[in-house]
Amino acid sequence: MNEAPQDERLMCRVNNLTYNFLTHSGELFLPEFNCCDMTGCRTLFESIDAQVTEIRTYAGNERDTMYRKVDDEWKAFCPSEY
User: Fold this and answer.
1) Is the pTM of this model over 0.90?
2) Which of 17, 20, 72, 74 is the most exposed, fewest CB within 10 Å of its CB?
């Protein structure tokens, strides 16, 4: 079985990511039990689109964290909060 590659910016393993330029939102899919570094995640998606405003992360098949830009500041939300 192949193991997902480690990404040093995110400080975790990564399966896949998607980005929607129309909504300025991205999704990051991680293997089960992985979580990413918020700064690394934000920086990665800002390198794709400087206008990114929302990033949703998933660990395995579960929603993990949503990062949203609110008044020019990035905030993290747990699944129960969105």
Assistant:
1) yes
2) 72
What domain count does the chain have?
1
Say if residues 27 and 36 touch (Cβ distance below 8 Å). no
At residue 45, the 3 state secondary structure works out as helix
pLDDT tens for 2-57 read 689 999 999 999 999 999 999 999 999 999 999 999 999 999 999 999 999 999 99
Contact 19, 50 (CB under 8 A): no
Q: Which of 51, 45, 42 is nearest to 19 (CA)?
A: 45
| Domain hosting residue 30, numbered range | 12-81
